[in-house]
Specification:
Length: 346
C-alpha cells in the first residue's frame, strides 16, 4: 500500500506501533483476569476466617480487680485438637506464686510451650482447671485476661511498619501511646542505641520489605513491646539460638528490667535463667515431675531434673568438641550462659 501510495510511510509506522501496543495490552488483560481470580479466591478464604466465630468467647466473662495472685493448674489433661490421641498433659499440677519466677524445663516436646498456650487460653484443657486466685480462667473475659499477660516469644514477629509502630503495638491501646512512651520502653529494653544508629531512627521501616534486624535486636524490640504493655504476668520463651556475647548480655539485661515485680513463667533454655529462677518445674511424662530450687533438685540423686542436666552437659561437651575453634577460648561464665544443645530445649 505504501508502494502504491495509498498510505504514507508515517501511517505504516504508526500502524505497526499501535499493533504492538494493542497486542501487548490484550495479552496483559488475560494475565490481569487470572490475577483477579486468584485474588478473589484468596480473599474469600480470608473472609471465611474473619467471619468464623471464635470457639472461645472473647468479650463476655468476669473482669477481676487485678491479675495478681496464685496461678494454679489443677489436674490438667490436654491433647491438641488435631492430635486428640497424643496426650501432652495427664493430671498435670503446677503452682505459680505471685511475683515469682518459675522456670519450666523438660526435654524437647515435653510441653513447655504448651503450658504457655494454655495460660493464654489459645486452648482449653480437656479436663481439670487453670485458676488465678481460685477463679477459673475460663470464667474470665478473654480480652481482659490477655491484656494482663505479656509474651516474649522465641522468634518475635515484626510487622511491616516503623520501629515505633512495632513497639507501640504492644500497648493495650496503641492510640494512646506517645512517642515518648515508645522511647522510654526502647531505652529500658536496650534498643535505643541501635535504633538511633539508623538514619530514620524510630521511623525506620522494618518487617516485610523493611530492613532486617538481627535476632538479638528483634528480641529487644519484643521486650520493649512487653514493657509498654506493663503486664502483671509475663511468659518468656527463651531463644534457643545463640546470640553473640554482647547482644546476649544486652538481651539478658533488658529481660531483667522487664521481669522486675512481675509473675514470670519462663521456658528456660539457659543455665543462668534456670539457676536464678525462684522455682524450677521439671516436666516429664505429661506432668510436673519435680518442683524446687536448682540446689534442691540437684540434690535428688535419681531425680529427673538432675538426669536432664547431666544429659545436657554431655551433649554440650560433645558440641564443644565439634566446634573446636571459637568457643574454646571463652570464659567459663559465657559458656555457661550459652543455650544448651537445641534439641533438648533446656
Ligand atoms: N499446634 C499443635 N498441634 C498439634 N501438636 C502440637 C502443636 N503444638 C505442639 N504440638 C506437639 O505437642 C508436643 C509438645 O510441644 P511443645 O511445643 O509444648 O514442647 P516444648 O517442650 O516446648 O518443646 P521445645 O523445647 O522443642 O520447644 C510436641 O510433641 C509437639 O509436636
Amino acid at each position: 500500500m505504501v508502494m502504491s501510495q495509498s498510505i504514507s510511510v508515517g501511517d505504516l509506522a504508526s500502524f505497526l506501533l499501535y499493533t504492538a501496543y494493542v497486542g501487548g495490552s490484550l495479552g496483559g488483560l488475560t494475565s490481569f483476569y487470572s490475577e483477579v481470580m486468584k485474588g478473589i479466591g484468596a480473599g474469600s478464604r480470608l473472609f471465611e476466617l474473619l467471619d468464623r466465630p471464635s470457639a472461645i468467647p472473647l468479650d463476655s466473662g468476669e473482669i477481676l480487680k487485678d491479675a495478681r495472685g496464685r496461678i494454679q493448674f489443677h489436674n490438667v489433661d490436654f491433647a491438641y485438637p488435631t492430635r486428640p490421641k497424643t496426650a501432652i498433659f495427664k493430671d498435670m499440677n503446677l503452682i505459680i506464686d505471685p511475683g515469682t519466677v518459675v522456670a519450666v524445663v523438660g526435654q524437647s516436646g515435653s510441653g513447655k510451650s504448651t503450658v504457655g498456650s494454655l495460660l493464654l487460653r489459645f486452648y482449653d484443657p480437656i479436663r481439670g482447671t487453670i485458676t488465678i486466685n481460685d477463679t477459673d480462667i475460663k470464667k474470665l473475659n478473654l480480652h481482659w485476661w490477655r491484656r494482663q499477660i505479656g509474651l516474649v516469644s522465641q522468634e518475635p514477629v515484626l510487622f511491616a511498619g516503623t520501629i515505633a509502630e512495632n513497639i507501640a503495638y504492644g500497648a493495650n491501646d496503641d492510640t494512646e501511646v506517645s512517642l515518648e512512651d515508645v522511647q522510654n520502653a526502647a531505652r529500658k529494653a536496650n534498643c535505643e542505641n541501635f535504633i538511633l544508629s539508623f538514619p530514620d531512627g524510630y521511623d525506620t521501616f522494618v518487617g516485610e520489605r523493611g530492613i532486617s534486624l538481627s535476632g538479638g535486636q528483634k528480641q529487644r524490640i519484643a521486650i520493649a513491646r512487653a514493657l509498654l504493655k506493663d503486664p502483671t504476668i509475663l511468659i518468656l520463651d527463651e531463644a534457643t539460638s545463640a546470640l553473640d556475647a554482647e547482644s546476649e548480655a544486652l538481651v539478658q539485661d533488658a529481660l531483667e528490667t522487664l521481669m522486675r515485680g512481675r509473675t514470670v513463667f519462663t521456658i528456660a533454655h539457659r543455665m543462668s535463667t534456670i539457676r536464678s529462677a525462684d522455682v524450677i518445674a521439671c516436666l516429664d511424662q505429661g506432668r510436673v515431675a519435680e518442683m524446687g530450687t536448682y540446689e534442691e533438685l540437684m540434690k535428688k540423686e535419681e531425680g529427673v531434673f538432675k538426669k536432664l542436666m547431666e544429659h545436657q552437659r554431655v551433649e554440650a561437651e560433645w558440641m564443644e568438641d565439634e566446634e573446636l575453634t571459637e568457643h574454646r577460648d571463652r570464659e567459663p561464665q559465657e559458656q555457661e550462659d550459652r543455650p544448651f544443645f537445641k534439641g533438648y530445649g533446656i
